[in-house]
Design a protein that fits this description.
With 227 residues, this protein is mostly beta strands. The chain has three helices and 15 strands. The chain has a single domain, classed as hypothetical protein yedk fold. The chain is 10% helix and 39% strand. The longest helix is centred in the N-terminal third of the chain and has 10 residues. It is globular and about 50 Å long. 35% of the residues are buried.
Length: 227
């Protein structure tokens, strides 16, 4: 998955918040949220809450405050989740989060050619992305800063022409997956193995665009059906 999210103030995102049992109005809305920017995530301790977090899991202290680490960490690969001392190992066990979005963007590079696609839940339905969160104390400001990453898993054949290296963890909205994922006391991560398989749990509307900054469609939107 590449580093851009879309969170639109629409019925689909509102429905996600109702599903999660959280307030809709406190979300940050923006069409293009890039890696390293701030986005809204859902976490759970005694209750569920929306937290504004930096989309870059690893932070480092500087003389002027915390900043994103030089090590790329807006995504956490599935095959690193069980590697001890990796950036996401402990977070995978104790501080998972969910990122409610309207859609996300993918970039595919083949030689000198670059293509951009934006993906949305069909008919405006929102998408829940599975992520990890961490908290950092800024020694300059004294502020506690929350950061997060999106978990990525192996590429899906249906997305081969859109992003051939990986796909984000799109959480199923049925069953008990969301409750288990958000429960900080649920540490039996072996139960999450099915989530880390290349699987599309909902229909996705896809459109190719010229580039994320100008967002001009190239051709008609098409649908990738769920598995």
């Amino acid at each position: 998955m590449c580093g851009r999210l879309n969170v639109t103030d629409n019925q689909g995102v509102s429905d996600l918040c109702e599903l999660l049992g959280i307030g809709y109005q406190s979300l940050l809305f923006k069409r293009f949220i890039g890696a390293g920017s701030t986005a809204s995530i859902v976490m759970q301790s005694s209750t569920r809450c929306i937290t504004n977090a930096v989309w870059w899991l690893l932070q480092e202290q500087t003389d002027s405050g915390l900043k994103c680490s030089k090590y790329t960490s807006f995504n956490t690969r599935y095959d690193k989740l069980n590697v001890k001392n990796s950036a996401g190992y402990q977070a995978y066990r104790t501080s998972r989060c969910i990122v409610p979005v309207s859609g996300f963007g993918e970039t595919e590079r083949k030689g000198k050619s670059v293509s951009y696609h934006d993906m949305f839940g069909e008919h405006g339905e929102g998408i829940l992305l599975g992520g990890l969160s961490r908290q950092w104390m800024d020694k300059v400001s004294g502020e506690v800063v929350t950061s997060f990453s999106v978990v990525t898993k192996p590429p899906h054949p249906k997305l081969a022409d859109i992003h051939s290296k990986s796909m984000p963890l799109i959480m199923p909205k049925y069953g008990s997956w969301v409750d288990m994922w958000l429960d900080p006391n649920f540490s039996d991560v072996d139960q999450f193995v099915p989530l880390l398989e290349p699987f599309i749990p909902q229909d996705l509307d896809v459109v190719q665009i010229d580039k994320p900054s100008s967002y001009q469609p190239l051709g008609q939107m098409f649908t990738i059906e769920k598995d």
